[in-house]
């Protein structure tokens, strides 16, 4: 999978692509459904490409503390996107300056260099500056290049749409069974391990959503262990090799 870090215009490419646009925080069941629908549209020579954003727009624009950390920071997001069949990722650095771009600028200029065959978005998709930057506008703008647009309905858990907000809440509460059900895959964090005065601490996880304080049964690098979360910035581990990938067990 190719990953491109982008600040405005996406790099030119002749590769024919089916493009999916979204935040993709968590790469949850709703995102997976989008990817499945887009993959089904790909002809033999076409590639599945993603436009996503870092950091979360609600953190970049409003400094909403609920969105300062990610369910899947870039490394985890890229891992799951590749796992679910993505060929290219265009990861846009989202800033207050970038947010000033209009929908017209995004489609006509930033995506101009791509060989677009189709665009796929989720239900109620909204993009670009302006209140009317919705799916209807996307369809109109893409019509200028004869690029079809497909709007995929929400995936729902019973009557409730699967959302990153609910997954964040489940992780924060230590409810990993619910988080796994909504994600469609286990929740994990990664970091380096340092030793101080006989205690081993996980570092480098400041971009991840961290569960509330407490002791948790986890899998560390494939082995069953127990950790203690002191707060969002302090996690005590048993002696383990570094780096450590910690997957939270779903059993309470």
Describe the structure.
It is an enzyme of class 2 (transferase). Pfam families: FAD_syn. This protein has 252 residues and is an alpha/beta fold. It has 2 domains: 153 residues, Rossmann fold (3-Layer(aba) Sandwich), CATH 3.40.50; 64 residues. It is built from 7 helices and 14 strands. The strands form 3 sheets. The protein has a 6-stranded parallel sheet, sandwiched between helices. Strand 7 and strand 8 form a beta hairpin. Helix 4 packs parallel to helix 5 and helix 6 runs antiparallel to helix 7. It is elongated and about 65 Å long. The chain starts with a strand and ends with a strand.
Topology:
Elements: E1 2-6, E2 16-21, H1 29-41, E3 47-54, H2 57-62, H3 74-83, E4 88-93, H4 103-110, E5 115-122, H5 135-143, E6 149-152, E7 156-157, E8 160-161, H6 164-172, H7 176-183, E9 188-196, E10 199-203, E11 214-220, E12 223-231, E13 234-237, E14 244-248
Parallel strand pairs: 1-4, 2-3, 2-5, 3-4, 5-6
Antiparallel strand pairs: 7-8, 9-10, 9-14, 10-13, 11-12, 11-14, 12-13
Helix pairs in contact: 4-5, 6-7
